[in-house]
Amino acid sequence: MLETIRGRAAEFRAQLDGAARVQERLLLEIVHRHAGCEYGRRHGFGRITSAAEWARRVPIVRYENLRGDLDRMIHGERDVLLTGKLLAFEETGGSSGGRRLIPYTKHSLAAFRRGITVWLDDLYAGDPALASGTAYWSISPAGRARAVTAGGIPIGLESDLSYLGPALAGEIAQTLSVGPEVAALTDLGQWRMATCVQLAADERLTLISVWSPTFLLQLLEYMFAHGSQIAAAIPNPARAAYVAKVLARSLADPAALWPALRLISCWTHGSSGGFAARLASLFPRVTLQGKGLLATEALVSIPLRALPWPVLALESAYIELLDAGGAIRAATAAEAGGEYEILITNDSGLYRYGIGDRVRVHGFAGGAPLLEFVGRTGITSDLVGEKLDEAFVAAALRPLARGFAALAPEEKSYALLLDLSETSHEIAPELARRCDQQLRANPQYAYARDLGQLEAVRPVRCDDPLGRYLAWRLRTGQRLGDIKPPALIVDAAWRAAFT
Predict the structure, then answer these.
(1) Which of these, 214, 215, 142, 218, lies nearest to 180 by C-alpha position?
(2) Which residue range forms the structural domain that includes residue 484?
(3) Looking at the structure, do residues 349 and 388 belong to the same domain, yes or no?
(4) What CATH number is given to the structural domain containing 448?
(5) What kind and span of H or E run contains 150?
(6) What does the longest C-alpha to C-alpha distance in the chain come to?
(7) Which of residues 312, 342, 376 is at a domain's end?
(8) To 10 degrees, what angle do helices 237-247 and 188-201 make?
(9) Reduced to 3 states, what is the DSSP secondary structure of residue 300?
(10) What is the pLDDT of residues 50-78, one digit of tens each?
(11) Is the pTM of the predicted complex or chain greater than 0.85?
(12) Does 291 share its domain with 440?
């Protein structure tokens, strides 16, 4: 058990019935805290006394709408989008866009912490045996050097443990399977080897927490490909011999490395579903828990053991939902079965801000919606009016049951990108045909195919497409542990990356 957060999950569950009140109270705290900044004065934050008034006064924004204000903050100007001191900017990137810098303050970090501590308390209270061993935490990627903005503000937090606060970070630090010094390595090859050596050496591992399942799968593949080198670097001779024996086998039994492992936490929704299923097959006796939706901008939902889907993180950000018709409602007023884009209001100077993530509502826990991440808004392809979006494409690809499958636009058709190690030359055309049939559920796509405006989906088998995609996104500034496997790739540079 983590003593500093004991009882947090029970406190959170007690608030679920009054979810709307909790959300509105949080909103008004944020609004009044930042009423004196330039943006707050511009939109009359000081006169807002309810969520309804908030919705009338304040516009919906995207990153592009705030770019000028954020640039002033990047150059050191204060009290522009928020009141108070900035601790750092955190870097993020869209699936097809360049980098974005998101401000962090002590209040916005505290908001992350309020949700994370609920999850951790629920996790350890639900399975006390987790506390008997060590844990591997991967929150942000290796491979980037420390940097500052033109105004001298750090880019990136000093440590991933900054999200947890000093007391909890101290407790977590005592259980780490891979030491924090590894995260400071800027050479990706050195980081990968050091991570794998420390993981392989750890026979007490009970918990693995990563974001993308592809992140862990890539580490496992590296371990089995470099087994003798990794085993030779383990100081305990008995453990080294055992690891060498396990890694000499195929990747079919990585669970043998960690007999005490009880739980893997990672994304399981959207385009991560197929990769999560592969992890589950590799660790059949280990619980696979899906992550909630945690964006660089805010924590949106939290997985709890007793609930079938992650629940709205009531205390972390004020969440509104935008439906396909442009109507906006508070998250607590969502309709079961509805799909929405997330709008957040937080202590980072982001107000009614579209983060681009879409969710489906699977009912409620008390007054709080249960949310499934289904894809990204804004990632769309429209060659001749078919308007395919990522969530739809991800659903169309799911029945293909392959580890890697992604769609990318060509001149008059779509390429179905497949891993040649997973898909034979003989079966690839059939998968493309089935994909084409699934896409016909979109009437505009079906119409374009029937008219001959679009040709049939074409299979393209690639060598290590996941590795190629990760390398490509790293070159564009995305963080390794933060890269979701793609379902729809709209960047025209995909050909250079995959062929």
Answers:
(1) 142
(2) 380-498
(3) no
(4) 3.30.70
(5) none
(6) 69
(7) 376
(8) 110
(9) coil
(10) 999 999 999 999 999 999 999 999 999 99
(11) no
(12) no
